[in-house]
Amino acid sequence: MIADFVLTKRLKTPDIHFPVKLHREKQQIFSFEKFEPFTGWDQDLAEALDSGGSDMEMERGIIQVQEHSVQHKAKMWKIALNVSGKGDSLSPWDGVLDLPEQTLIHNRSQQLIDQLGASEEEQSDMVSDIESVITFYCKSRNITFTPELSWPHLLKPLLGLQLPRSDLYNCFYAVMNKYIPRDCVPNGRPFHLYRLLLQYHEPELCSFLDTKKITPDSYAINWLGSLFSSHCLPDVTQALWDSYLQQADPFLIFFLMLVMLVNGDSKEDIISKFEMLEAFPSLLGAEDIEDLFSLAQYYQSKTPLSLRKMNQNLFGSSLVALKEEDTDLSQALCLPVSVPEILQANQLQQDGVRFFVVDCRPAEQYNAGHLSTAFHLDSDLMLQNPSEFALSVKSLLETQKQSLESGSIASGEHLCFMGSGREEEDMYMNMVLAHFLQKNKEYVSIAKGGFMALQQHLVDMNVEGLDSSYVHWIVSTSGSHSSLSSADGESLSSPGDSKGVKSLVNKMTFALKSKSVNVKEKMISFIENTSTPVDRISFNLPWPEKVIPDRHVSSSDRVGKPYRGVKPVFSIGDEEEYDTDEIDSSSMSDDDRKEIVNIQTWINKPDVKHHIPCNEVKETGHMFPSHLLITATHMYCLREIASRKGFAYIQSRQALNSVVKITSKKKHPELITFKFGSNNSAGVEISAVERYLIPNAGDATKVIKQQIMKVLDALESS
């Protein structure tokens, strides 16, 4: 019998600062406090479901139920799967069961019904339903049903809802489309991704399983393919799916699988009872679901967002072909992280994943230019001078520890290694990565594309030209920009470099190359001066060529004709300059900046005509979740307060008649720049510039333009 479980610490709040493990204890199986996953089912919910509403935000607020009828649960799941009121997809089908693998489908359907212990009459109808649903799904999508597929298990919890066949198919299709990843087959891509996730959080266990040749698909293929319904009891599966559908996050299954494995047993028992490993979910009880999800959400909070952003095509109905290098996760040394996430993660916020970036390029490349917060670890030393490499690694870990304690902007619990981005040059970096992984270091990742990707990203985001302040993410520690020639390790750089991040990385670079200093002591002292950002320097590098596509005249282009004989007050077009010398959204007083408002209250104000969720983009590249509110005469920017959910600062108030230009980037049309000012005898005087990253930017700028036109009409007629 597989080992039993008990939770050592119970999670009650989302603010978790420690990993929670389950340990073995006799005669207890996930013995937790009584969990009531949903609040009482009342008349309000019944009325909401009967109304047929489909607003998921509203439904999630009231869908939290525990005891309710099968009919109500069926309505709840159909709403969560967005199939409520959907027609009969089976109606065009002739109902003929004639696939080459039809016998296999029938036998699998019969096996499932035999497990449920239904009456003979019910069994016949249920087998027919399952066989019809699977057959039509295969025919309509030109898929062959194979023995390893878990589709019958996926139908098991849906059968408990007593749905008509048309609804059964619609729900099955929705679950398959949204929650079952593509390539869920032996050696499939989802299992390589899951192994990288396991390695990221539990490298020792991952290494142990690798040495024993226990691959994720050997025990988890049915976990993933059936959302645990293959092994959980029906009531447990329904409780688990209640929470899972409420979260509406397809990637959550990977973290639930991680918890299941990590807390399932000791390493010794895993290998001695390997044949029972797949059965771990059978030990779950309905009362354990809350803790299972709490642990999963803990691991999720400690995982880079790149995991899901780089693998979004695992789910959904998109048939877009994938690049081979993006799909072959089996060759990945560790979890890749995108450059934008690295840059954004260490900006201001204290919560979430923060990276300690380790630049593994040769010294001359690092000195020519590097990310301002990166620690240098010359990977060539691993073979050329192993003792110095060992000292550098020790210094790296000590620096990381001290930076975390001091709150440095360069600090991060998660190590992210950066190479050049050229495969032939990154061979040694891969050896360094393997070294850290062999030491079972958790939270190890690699910057996807290396320094070349960083350069390209800054070129793309850098609103026209190397003079933009965004490029100051990069600093140089060689040549005329920064000298490191002093014997005692003091940098001889410009006065602006004497403290802060640049001072830290410059001194670290020197210290790691100097044999006359105590590196450990130096590292500790360096960290003390990194709590405040400083101005960074520009330098010349062979940046990737920026291609500006040819632009042809369109009938929709503005041609400069004055609006009804009035001199143009604003224009909308492609942005050709960054105007870094212009004032950056500073047209309000300190009191205005400090004003705090309830976001929803302001959105609901009767004079607010349009609400546009967005991110405010500063010239430094920092982004802040914000909301643009458009009234009849003004545009307000509310910047969300991270520490106070639902509240925001009034970041700016701008009159619509002061908008003189609205521009967008050719390569990034969602990056919108607003310029505010006034006309005088000398021309247009710019008073403020604000930039926002706006989803569906075309629609947003259209409604703003229309409102500006109304203001101008009113001014003209007055």
TrEMBL record:
Give a yes or no for keyword Metal-binding in this entry: no
GO BP annotations, alphabetical order: embryonic brain development; nervous system development; retrograde transport, endosome to Golgi; vesicle tethering to Golgi
Q: Which residues form the Rab-GAP TBC domain?
A: 67-248
| Family matches, as InterPro entries | Rab-GAP-TBC_dom (IPR000195), Rab-GAP_TBC_sf (IPR035969), Rhodanese-like_dom (IPR001763), Rhodanese-like_dom_sf (IPR036873), TBC1D23 (IPR039755), TBC1D23_C (IPR045799)
Q: Which domain of life is it from?
A: Eukaryota
GO CC aspect terms = cytosol; trans-Golgi network
UniProt domain Rhodanese: residue ranges: 351-460
KW Endoplasmic reticulum (keyword) present: no
Against PANTHER family, the record matches this protein to: TBC1 DOMAIN FAMILY MEMBER 23, TBC1 DOMAIN FAMILY MEMBER 23-RELATED
What name is this protein filed under? TBC1 domain family member 23
Question: Coding gene?
Answer: TBC1D23
